[in-house]
């Protein structure tokens, strides 16, 4: 299986399973597929090779005309979640537009990478976001106990540099957790248990693919 190709899924929640020896494993229950091939990118037309998958049906009334035309061209129902997977030309040749891709793409005990959007925490200061320790709380210090300190230079370059750690919107970013293990797969329910936690809240959507750093 191509390590770049995978599935789209939805996070259901966390639970636990037990090994035969009685040890407990915390797992995340996820719904994986079934996905449908909506479009195939080719080197001649697009400059790269990729497969676009769609997941979870969406009402036609909530789809604009360009999107609706895109789905009708592929003869598939509108989908909530569309993502592309870069693949080789050999891998792309195995799939056709409109074809369904199911959970049997993966197997038990396989290592995977999960890419999703982390939970948003709203506005947060440098203590919560970056673990700053703050200044002294005595000896003439006034109202700067939780401040970030000096932000930039005086004359040169005379501005705050990009990437400076400051207060602002915390989390709600694209996060990839690598080399997680699929503990169990239930093909009839399109359900899988992944060891540990994955990005996002309940019902959030994510991409899953074979782990890039797993030992072959």
Structure report:
With 216 residues, this protein is mostly beta strands. The chain folds into two domains: 7-121 and 174-210, Translation factors (Elongation Factor Tu (Ef-tu), domain 3); 122-171, no CATH class. The protein contains four helices and twelve strands, in the order E-E-E-H-E-H-E-H-E-E-E-H-E-E-E-E. It has helices at residues 43-46, 65-74, 89-92, 126-130, and strands spanning 7-18, 24-32, 35-41, 50-57, 79-86, 100-101, 111-117, 120-124, 168-171, 174-186, 191-195, 205-210. It has a six-stranded antiparallel barrel with strand order 1-2-11-10-7-12. Strand 10 (174-186) and strand 11 (191-195) form a beta hairpin. It is globular and about 70 Å long.
Short description:
The chain has 216 residues and is mainly beta. It has helices at 43-46, 65-74, 89-92, 126-130, and strands spanning 7-18, 24-32, 35-41, 50-57, 79-86, 100-101, 111-117, 120-124, 168-171, 174-186, 191-195, 205-210. Helix content is 11%, strand content 40%.
Key terms for this structure?
four-stranded antiparallel beta sheet; mainly beta; six-stranded antiparallel β-barrel; Elongation Factor Tu (Ef-tu), domain 3; 216 residues
List the helices and strands and how they pair.
Elements: E1 7-18, E2 24-32, E3 35-41, H1 43-46, E4 50-57, H2 65-74, E5 79-86, H3 89-92, E6 100-101, E7 111-117, E8 120-124, H4 126-130, E9 168-171, E10 174-186, E11 191-195, E12 205-210
Antiparallel strand pairs: 1-2, 1-12, 2-11, 3-4, 3-6, 4-5, 7-10, 7-12, 8-9, 10-11
């Amino acid at each position: 299986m191509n390590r770049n190709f995978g599935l789209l899924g939805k996070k259901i929640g966390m639970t636990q399973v037990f090994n035969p020896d009685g040890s407990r494993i915390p797992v995340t229950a996820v719904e994986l597929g079934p996905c449908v091939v909506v479009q195939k990118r080719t080197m001649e037309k697009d400059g790269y090779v990729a497969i676009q998958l769609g997941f979870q049906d969406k009402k036609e009334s909530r789809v604009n005309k360009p999107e609706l035309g895109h789905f009708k061209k592929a003869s598939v129902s509108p989908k909530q979640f569309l993502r592309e997977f870069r693949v080789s030309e050999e891998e792309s040749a195995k799939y056709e537009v409109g074809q369904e891709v199911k959970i049997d793409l993966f197997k038990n005990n396989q290592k995977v990478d999960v890419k999703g959007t982390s939970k948003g925490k709203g506005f947060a200061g440098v203590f919560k976001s970056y673990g700053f320790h703050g200044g002294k709380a005595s000896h003439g210090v006034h109202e700067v106990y939780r401040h970030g300190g000096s932000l930039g230079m005086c004359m040169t370059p005379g501005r705050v540099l990009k990437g400076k750690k400051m207060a602002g919107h915390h989390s709600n970013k694209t996060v990839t957790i690598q080399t997680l293990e699929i503990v169990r797969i239930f093909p009839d329910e399109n359900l899988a248990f992944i060891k540990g936690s994955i990005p996002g809240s309940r019902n959030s959507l994510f991409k899953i693919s074979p782990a890039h750093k797993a030992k072959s």
